[in-house]
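User: Design a sequence. Structure:
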């Protein structure tokens, strides 16, 4: 099986005339040989806190206000920023 892996790696490196299906099959084979079967891999869930959500909303609102002050969507972005700030305020209070 090692020889096939080497030949697939070489074929993948020189994939000019390779069909999409063959390239995808070779990539899949190389991936499984390098990293094994990852079906049992469970990613660690990211924990979202309310503070993170509030910080993100306020950051997006500030970005929109900065863009509006530079001339981009001067009516739309301040309205969206106000909406985001109100949403952050409601999350902070309740």
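Assistant: Done.
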């Amino acid at each position: 099986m090692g020889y096939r892996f080497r030949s697939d790696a070489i074929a993948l490196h020189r994939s000019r005339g390779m069909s999409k299906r063959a390239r995808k099959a070779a990539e899949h084979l190389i991936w499984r040989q390098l990293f094994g079967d990852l079906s049992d891999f469970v990613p660690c869930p990211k924990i979202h806190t309310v503070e993170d959500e509030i910080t993100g909303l306020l950051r997006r609102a500030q970005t929109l206000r900065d863009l509006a002050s530079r001339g981009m969507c001067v009516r739309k972005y301040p309205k969206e920023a106000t909406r985001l700030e109100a949403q952050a305020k409601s999350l902070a209070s309740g």
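DSSP finds four helices and no strands in the chain. The chain has a mean pLDDT of 83.
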